[in-house]
UniProtKB/TrEMBL annotation:
UniProt family annotation: Belongs to the YqgF HJR family.
Entry EC number(s): 3.1.-.-
Species per Swiss-Prot/TrEMBL record: Phytopseudomonas punonensis
Gene Ontology CC terms: cytosol
Record flagged with keyword Cytoplasm: yes
Function according to Swiss-Prot or TrEMBL: Could be a nuclease involved in processing of the 5'-end of pre-16S rRNA.
SMART domains reported for this sequence: YqgFc
Signal peptide residue numbers: none
Keyword Cytoplasm: yes
Subcellular locations according to the entry: Cytoplasm
Protein name, UniProt field: Putative pre-16S rRNA nuclease
Gene Ontology annotations of biological process type: rRNA 5'-end processing
Amino acid sequence: MAEVGDKPLRLLLGFDYGSKQIGVAVGQPITGSARELCILKAQNGVPDWQKVEALIKEWQPDAIVVGLPLNMDGTPSDISERAEKFARRLNGRFNLPVFTHDERLTTYAAKGERLQQGQTGGYRQRPVDALAAALLLQGWLEENSPD
């Protein structure tokens, strides 16, 4: 099981950071799985911190994973710095370990999953941000499993 120091991680929240919406997912290292939770609206990348706090209080995660939007060549994208700032603010506000994870292609993969489920476009009405958060959190769990 993934650990921070000598403390096992039992529950994590994952955030797919965006300037208008932030997808949220929940995951468990013991099962190695993650699932969609919700989408938070953001104003120019700033979420309603009271809603973030409500999620933290409700789920009581041991750590948080924030998607790091890198370019395909691995270099930081325009929004990477803002996602890292969001990660630092989560750590500062809630005093929880916060990890970043490469989220390249998670939105693309999430749209692909929705296409397989029969969704054709309409991503404004049925956004994929929470599914993208679940995929990036799943990736972090796979990279950090102890096997």
